[in-house]
Write a structure and sequence with these properties.
Elements lengths: L25 H6 L7 E9 L11 H15 L8 E3 L8 H13 L9 E4 L2 H4 L6 H15 L1 E2 L19 E3 L4 E2 L8 E7 L4 E8 L15 E7 L2 H16 L4 H13 L6 E7 L2 H12 L6 E2 L14 H9 L49 E7 L11 E6 L3 H13 L2 E4 L7 E5 L10 H14 L5 E7 L14 H17 L2 E7 L5 H18 L3 E6 L2 E9 L13 E5 L4 H12 L4 E6 L5 H11 L3 E6 L5 H15 L2 E6 L15 H24 L4 E7 L12 H17 L5 E7 L1 E2 L8 H4 L3 E2 L1 H10 L5 E4 L38 H16 L15 H15 L6 H5 L3 H13 L19 H6 L13
Parallel strand pairs: 2-3, 2-7, 3-5, 13-14, 13-15, 15-16, 16-17, 17-18, 20-21, 20-23, 21-22, 23-24, 24-25, 25-28, 26-27
Antiparallel strand pairs: 1-8, 4-6, 7-8, 9-10, 10-11, 12-19, 18-19
Helix pairs in contact: 2-3, 6-8, 10-13, 11-12, 12-18, 16-17, 17-18, 21-22, 21-24
Length: 921
């Protein structure tokens, strides 16, 4: 760490950052309505001259630059409140810098300890060429907010710096920067290695006096982005900013900034409103998808004469109309202000092929995340008569819900035996995890009492992260309860609804929500899940998830695998060793028996492997094992948590909690302990092997305890994933022939073979959160090699063509191959974007053609990539070609070993034979 001005300073730590500062004459900036962050009063640069070494600074040279900057600024040091020092945190450089500053200032003032001194390098590291600008930004922000952030890591000031005799005091904590006579002023030093010195004096910008806002009936706001997603995300951010508008001028400035200060993009929409509140409401409608987004330039021509009303213009812009004179719509005197910045897509574009990436033919199988989308209750979902039993412990909610149900015609019963519907609300107090044993008993009792055609509605708070920012408050136990209710009802063929309530809403609002969901359940009869936030209803959805960044398994340190001698755990241990792991710790509850000892001996021939008997639900015992392995091998690199078991198939209502707990505890307490261990030791990752039983109610039929346990793991990963340690839970389908038994009907459509699963494991090792792998229908047994066309020798003169797979003629499958090829080569799916806009050169086209060949199983003509306008069109052309059989002898002959040839080599082959005239022998 950087210990600037501390007695223990021992050098700087490099940092990474980019700083951009726009410099403009003050008069022009005020004239143009720019947002001025500060004024440069004076500056100076110079060289320190010869010293005793390249990295040894010259205090005299630094002092001369400081004096020159003060003279250039025409201000006294007495008017400065902050000096942002170069402050690299070296025992030699820091005292020299303070001495040079002090000598320079003593020419103008005799005051002591009146000016704050600090260094941002202690906060963010040394940005080297950008370090001076980083210090400038710190001073500008401190002037703006009136607070100087403290310099960190100062325990005892450097013994060679006498601050008490200098004009400076060290800011080691946040310091309120008051305003005395005149504007706040500060200074920034930037001293480069080799003696180049610079010093700048800056001050607050002048206040701009503004009169009353000109009267205006309404405002028009444009929102533009590179795609529809960006437009809707930006509209949501704009809405939040408009909702905090500080008055009419602020609203006018926000509109001006959105319309004039942002570059037009391909997608656009517009809203209008009389004030900030109406604009915020309309912007939220855009974010929610209730107002359309147009493609710029695709709209119809404006009527003649062109409309001038804001409502009519907004409608035109939403169709893609681009003929609006946006600057003319700004309120006279409006200025640029702090509008939310563009929501750049979170994709990685530093695409690299390394030895750690899976081979091209090992494309990870489909994966997705569970998400939420808005969906209102059906219009016909109104009050319905019925008998409801309430299991609600909150008195206020019970009273409000009883009144709401009775108002809508329902009868509230006293026992389950009298009711056709039971409405249960989780009783877990805020800030606590639920008592799963009590929950299990309550739900089992309720299911026993319900009539054959009864219904169950379960409601809770903090069981789902519906909107951004909710993951931190997610309760894995509550999410597990919701999944267990759905699975238990699925196995009992009971219609149910799972409702995730908004904890911030009052009891009356929650009661209205539950009454409406009850009516929908009773009338529709189909099982549902829903969440309510701020008056908006959401339902479950999914979104595709791409593999995370490649992870290089390290030979140093060690990896800990719990349950590592089980069927799945053993395969993952073997793959870790295949990829370079040399030290593996395996933890299991059972003592070693002859069978496990034999497996361990086989693993030990390839790496150093240690087995320790330990219950992962026992946190101190797990920590002790890790401590032993730390001492033996060093740093813990990653944790793979495979521990777990499964009970025999059986109904929840007949399974006591004592039996269920044997399945639940390793995946709840054990997962939490494994994740905490990884986080506390700074491991690269923690992976939880979970199951689709935690996301699909049908997969939990007869295994409700297993469903509950896996849902806990998935929610835990969503909550705990962070930048330090990647925490990922894989919701696996059936591993064909490996691992625990699955419901046969479910596994028939949701399976992966072991190779696919292992590819997905490493592809999503660092993805983070809950990753759902739905799998597919298992492949039929392979045909006898003698029966396959590939086994037959090609006849003389026959062109060898890579055979197309059975699905090669299907446009959907080919579109998936096209997507995967672009992901492999460019790291991005082009979607419906024009291919000509992707910057494809000849080498990229050749790589894409090769990737397509490897996936589609056919020779691909690279010219298709140059002709096709979109990925869909490319897939259609490939499908059309695949529809007809290859013509024997057509085109240049390809040798029989061409399967591994790249498209680039096929392009160049005619040029490398017979003088390059394109004629092959």
């Amino acid at each position: 760490m950087v210990r600037a001005f501390d007695a223990g300073a021992d050098g700087f730590v490099p940092g990474e950052g980019v700083v951009s500062v726009v410099v403009k004459s003050l008069g022009a900036a005020l004239r143009d309505g720019d947002r001025v962050r500060g004024v440069v009063r004076g500056s100076a640069v110079g060289h320190g001259g010869r010293t005793s070494g390249l990295t040894v600074p010259s205090g005299g040279g630094q002092g001369e630059v400081v004096v020159a900057a003060l003279v250039d600024a025409g201000v006294s040091p007495d008017s400065l409140g902050v000096v942002e020092a170069h402050g690299t945190g070296t025992g030699l450089g820091d005292p020299i810098e303070v001495e040079g500053l002090s000598r320079a200032w003593r020419r103008f003032t005799g005051r002591s300890q009146f000016c704050a001194l600090g260094s941002v390098k202690s906060n963010i590291g040394h940005l080297e060429p950008a370090a001076g600008l980083a210090g400038l930004v710190k001073v500008l922000l401190a002037m703006e907010h009136g607070v100087v952030p403290g310099s960190l890591h100062v325990r005892r000031p450097n013994d060679h710096i006498r601050f008490e005799d200098s004009p400076f005091f060290l800011v080691d904590r946040a310091w309120v920067w008051g305003r005395e006579e005149g504007p706040r002023r500060g200074a920034v030093s930037a001293f480069g290695m080799g003696g180049v010195n610079a010093h700048v004096i800056v001050e607050e910008p002048p206040r701009v006096e503004r009169g009353a806002v000109p009267v205006q009936d309404s405002h028009l706001v444009r929102v533009t982005g590179a795609d529809e997603r960006a437009v809707r995300e930006l509209a949501a951010a704009y809405a939040d900013r408009f909702a905090t508008s500080r008055g009419p001028w602020d609203t006018a400035d926000l509109c001006h900034t959105a319309n004039v200060g942002r570059s037009p993009q391909e997608y656009v929409t517009a809203v209008h409103g009389r004030d900030a509140a109406e604009l915020a409401e309309s912007l939220r409608a855009v974010a929610a998808g209730r107002l359309p987004v147009g493609v710029a330039g695709s709209g119809t021509r404006a009527p003649d004469p062109a409309p001038t009303g804001h409502a009519a213009l907004a409608e035109l812009v939403r169709t893609g109309y681009t003929g609006v004179d946006w600057p003319a719509l700004s309120v006279p005197g409006a200025r640029t202000t702090d509008l939310p910045t563009y929501p750049f897509a979170p994709g990685r574009h530093w695409h690299m092929h390394t030895e750690t990436t899976a081979p091209a033919e090992e494309t990870p199988p489909e994966a997705y995340r569970a998400t939420w989308r808005e969906e209102a209750l059906p219009q016909e979902a109104q009050a319905a008569p019925g008998t409801v039993r309430l299991v609600v412990t909150d008195p206020a909610l019970h009273e409000a819900l009883t009144a709401e149900l009775r108002l809508n015609g329902a009868h509230v019963a006293g026992t389950e035996a009298e009711a056709d519907t039971v409405l249960m609300v989780d009783a877990t107090p805020p800030g606590q995890e639920p008592d799963l044993s009590t929950f299990w008993a309550r739900v089992a009792k309720t299911l026993k009492a319900l009539p054959p055609h009864g219904r169950l509605l379960w409601a809770s708070c903090h069981g789902a992260a519906v909107r951004p920012g909710e993951h931190a408050s997610l309760r894995p136990g509550t999410a597990a309860q919701a999944m267990a209710v759905a699975a238990a009802c699925a196995e009992s063929r009971i219609a149910h609804a799972v409702v995730h309530l908004d904890p911030s809403e009052p009891a009356e609002a929650r009661a209205r929500v539950l009454a409406a969901e009850y009516a929908a359940l009773r009338q529709g009869g189909e099982s549902t899940a829903a969440a309510h936030r701020a008056g908006v209803r959401y339902v479950p959805d999914t979104s595709p998830v791409r593999p995370g960044r490649a992870y290089e398994v390290r030979p140093d340190g060690y990896y800990l695998v719990t349950g590592g001698l089980g069927a799945i755990g053993r395969r993952l241990v073997e793959r870790l060793i295949d990829r370079g792991a040399r030290h593996i710790g395996i933890v299991g509850r059972s003592a070693l028996d002859p069978g496990r000892s034999q497996v361990l001996r086989a693993l030990a021939t390839r790496a150093e492997v240690v087995y320790r008997s330990c219950d992962v639900a026992d946190a101190p015992a797990l920590t002790a094992v890790a401590g032993e392995l730390d001492a033996r091998w060093g740093r813990l690199r990653g944790v793979v948590h495979c521990s777990g078991g499964v009970n025999a198939f059986g109904a929840m209502r007949r399974r006591p909690w004592a039996d269920a707990a044997r399945v639940v505890t390793p995946k709840t307490d054990g997962s939490l302990h494994a994740v905490r261990l990884a986080q506390d030791r700074g491991a690269d990752f923690a992976v939880l092997t979970s199951s689709l039983a935690g996301t699909h109610a049908d997969a939990g039929r007869g295994l409700v305890d297993y469903s509950l346990a896996n849902a806990y793991q998935l929610a835990l990963a969503e909550r705990e994933h962070g930048p330090g340690t990647a925490v990922t839970a894989h919701a696996w389908p059936n591993w064909t022939g490996v691992g625990m038994a699955a419901d046969a009907a479910f596994a028939a459509a949701h399976s992966l073979d072991a190779t696919e699963a292992e590819t997905a494991f490493f592809g999503h090792l660092l993805t983070g959160g809950a990753v759902v792998l739905p799998g597919h229908t298992p492949a039929p047994p392979p045909a006898s090699p003698a029966d396959t066309p590939e086994a037959r020798e090609p006849g003389p003169g026959t062109r060898t063509v890579i055979p197309a797979p059975a699905t090669g003629r299907d446009h959907t499958a080919l579109r998936a191959h096209v997507r995967d090829a672009f992901l492999h080569v460019l790291g991005d799916d082009p979607g419906d974007r024009p291919l000509r806009g992707l910057g494809l050169d000849s080498l990229v086209i050749a790589e894409l053609a090769t990737a397509l060949e490897q996936r589609a199983g056919r020779t691909v003509d690279p010219s298709l990539l140059m002709r096709a306008r979109t990925a869909d069109e490319l897939a259609a052309e490939l499908a059309a070609i695949a529809a007809g059989p290859p013509v024997a002898g057509a085109g240049p002959a390809v040798p029989s070993d061409a399967t591994g040839a790249t498209a680039l080599s096929l392009l160049l082959r005619p040029l490398l034979t017979d003088g390059g005239d394109g004629v092959t022998p």
